[in-house]
Design brief:
Length: 338
């Protein structure tokens, strides 16, 4: 932490220097500051620094630098929900890397392009991109890249309900990640495997893998990961009849997601909690569903497919239980913050 503070002060001096600092050094200082702000979650400041570095790299004709900055800006755009912008920047980044024929950077930019494509529901394009970068990573013998591409292909296969293919991709990825001791990536893969096992009725295996992912996320201090995995475990617990434990897990996930202002996490945990509370507290469950509906559940979004199924099933059960009063409590939840 002390070294980071000293480095930050040093790069700030370089950025603010009026003269005697070469443009490429100043560009690197802006880029480092952008990365520092990105890691600390300050996307607006990160974007500002990256844009300053991008401008200097363009003036210098540094195609590699321009490509890297466009790639970084694309990651921020995706993280802040600007998916069209993220797609455009990732594609432009890839073009720069192709001009300098840097296969590793091309593969990396293709991998990053996949995320906004999924969010834009361009699933076939995303699958082609992940397959293309997988071929490149295998050629480069880049184990970490191979594993990341396989995890993404596994997630896509799961979204399309091709669970057999999904498990094939994910298990190969997990094996590589264990060899690399890449805990950050392993946590994501374990959660994906557990979720698919839950969808196919393999509840004990699902609980084992999701619990392992929660442990890793906790060791890494990854709150978003913890919230997602705890929520996934909540659905598994509900499927095995452990409704009270399920409700507690969804509630914990909801609290973390609200703290992080993670709208997708809030939506998923609200629906999970409503399902768990349906029998014991239907009024609360109806309000939770109303709250989740404010965040828009899109029937055409593959990312929403599983949660939409739970949402609709719970809504039908609550209408039967509450009768005409359901709409009153549902609207109350829709109009008020839970």
């Amino acid at each position: 932490r002390g070294y980071n503070s000293e480095a930050k002060n040093y790069f700030e001096e370089l950025m603010n220097a009026e003269k005697d600092v070469k443009p490429e050094i100043k560009a690197n200082a802006y880029q480092w500051m952008g990365s520092f702000e990105w890691i600390t979650g300050n996307y607006e400041r990160s974007m500002s620094f990256y844009e300053s570095s991008l401008s200097l790299n363009k003036e210098a004709g540094n195609k590699k630098g321009v490509g890297i900055l466009l790639n970084n800006l694309g990651l921020i755009a995706n993280a802040t929900g600007e998916y069209e912008k993220a797609k455009s920047m990732s594609e432009e980044s890839c073009r720069y890397f192709k001009e300098i024929n840097d296969e590793r950077l091309i593969a990396d930019s293709l991998l990053n392009l996949g995320a906004p494509l999924i969010n834009l529901r361009e699933i076939d394009y995303a699958e082609n991109v992940f397959n293309e970068c997988l071929i490149m990573y295998r050629k480069l013998r880049d184990s970490r890249g191979i594993a990341l591409a396989l995890t993404n292909l596994g997630s896509l296969a799961g979204m399309k309900s091709d669970f057999s293919k999904a498990m094939e991709y994910l298990n190969e990825s997990l094996s590589i990640q264990r060899d690399l001791k890449d805990n950050r990536a392993m946590a994501v893969t374990l959660e994906n495997i557990g979720s698919i096992e839950g969808n196919t009725g393999k509840y004990s295996e699902a609980e084992f893998h999701i619990t392992e992912s929660i442990k890793i996320y906790s060791e890494l201090g990854n709150k978003k990961g913890i919230a997602g995995a705890i929520n996934a475990l909540g659905f598994v617990k509900y499927s095995t009849g452990q409704t009270e434990e399920s409700a507690n897990l969804h509630l914990e996930s909801l609290k973390i997601s609200k703290e992080l202002k993670n709208h997708r996490g809030i939506k998923y945990s609200s629906v999970g909690l409503a399902e768990s509370e349906c029998q014991t507290d239907p009024v609360k469950a109806a309000k939770l569903l109303g709250s989740a509906s404010r965040l828009i559940i899109d029937p055409d979004d593959l990312l929403e497919k599983d949660i939409l199924k739970v949402y609709n099933k719970t809504k039908i059960a609550l209408k039967e239980k509450l009768g005409e009063d359901f709409e009153k409590f549902f609207e109350e939840g829709k109009n008020n913050e839970q």
